[in-house]
Amino acid sequence: MKVPSDFLAKIGGQTARLGGIFFTLFEVISPRKHMPDCEKCKDLRKVFKIKLPAHLKQAISIAQENVADNTISVIENGTGNWSQPFSQLVATGAWDDIVQYLFKCNFCGQRFQLNAETYHGGGGEWKPLAK
Known about the structure:
By secondary structure, the chain is α+β, with helices and mostly antiparallel strands. The protein is built from one helix and seven strands.
């Protein structure tokens, strides 16, 4: 499944030249460095920061679409005790204070985590997990 471009992490940096050698001044580590090249979940292997309720709504919707099309599945024993079952989660709101779910790609086994602290608005993220 394709992921909307605004969901994908923006990775960038600046480089400086010193004596013919380029140095990275700022670098976001790409989560793909040690992950499989699975065509099914490649668009999900990005870090997406959740800073607003709209971001969480979008992350939940994308996860639900990927569960529905059998790209990923929920790892039920990885869901926090404080979160309702993912199948009951509504993308439009009324979320638990802590939203935390684990998923895995049904084709390569790559794991993903969706977490957010909604009570105080602490934010969260969607991210692939290192194997």
